[in-house]
Amino acid sequence: MDFLTVTNVHHTYFSKEAATEALQNINLTINKGEFVSFIGPSGCGKTTLLSIIAGLFQPTSGTVKIENQAVYGNSDLSIGYMLQQDYLFPWKTIEENITLGLKLLKEDNQNFSKVTSDLLHDVGLPPIGEKYPRELSGGMRQRVALARTLAVDPKILLLDEPFSALDYQSKLKLEDLVANKLKEYGKTAVLVTHDLGEAIAMSDRIFLFSPRPGKLHQIFEVPEDLRQLTPFDVRSHSSYSPLFQIIWKELENLEQS
């Protein structure tokens, strides 16, 4: 069943000096509960498309719908967005950061301490609700950012290189955690990444975009035997390297053309 549909999306950035076409004729669908990745050369419009899917701005033309509801200007749709930086408010406690979205939604009937405790447990953190962001490591802060995103029960999670600022060990742990939690919560997710290995390890499908103006060049299905594994274990499976080589060569051809 099509959950997210992107139809004939074009986008152009205008300035006083020039018009820059970022995206051209993007058509794609994503199924409910599916995890997909957007990859492609730098400047191919991946983050622009993610922002359009988030409803942050309208495309120059075309439509984006979630369950047949237009995304832009729709306050009834809850969309989670995780970025490279955690953007926790340093003057607020961890509990206040996690429950901020619920308070903005005026969910006053919630037991915020219990919500915080449950979510911290879900993302593998001890009861640190009274601590402040400055007291946590980068990996712990990203776990808190994930808990904050899940707190509002979003329809879809949009992940814009959320692990790229972490050390490699923390990155691998967070990949496993996010993949596991999204399956457990039954969430649909879109990941923008420059890390091809990460895309293969976490995704059901990979969307490869061509250089600017970004066009959808090719879609790769991740084999079922990889999709059943954790991201960490995917990298040591015999099916991983051949798929990596196929996509890598296609990406190289795009960058050279």
Structure summarized in a few sentences:
Pfam families: ABC_tran. The chain contains ten helices and ten strands. By secondary structure, it is α/β, with parallel strands linked by helices.
Main attributes of the structure:
globular, 257 residues, 6-stranded mixed sheet, alpha/beta, Rossmann fold, P-loop_NTPase, 4-stranded antiparallel sheet, 2 domains
Question: How would you describe this protein?
Answer:
With about 260 residues, this protein is of the alpha/beta class. It folds into two domains: about 1-75 and about 155-255, Rossmann fold (3-Layer(aba) Sandwich); about 85-155, no CATH class. The protein is about 35% helix and about 25% strand. The chain is built from ten helices and ten strands. The strands form two sheets. Strands 6-7-8-3-9-10 form a six-stranded mixed beta sheet, sandwiched between helices. A four-stranded antiparallel beta sheet has the order 2-1-4-5, with helices on one face. Strand 1 (about 1-15) and strand 2 form a beta hairpin. The longest helix is centred in the C-terminal third of the chain and has 18 residues, at about 170-185. The radius of gyration is 19 Å and the shape is globular. The chain starts with a strand and ends with a helix.
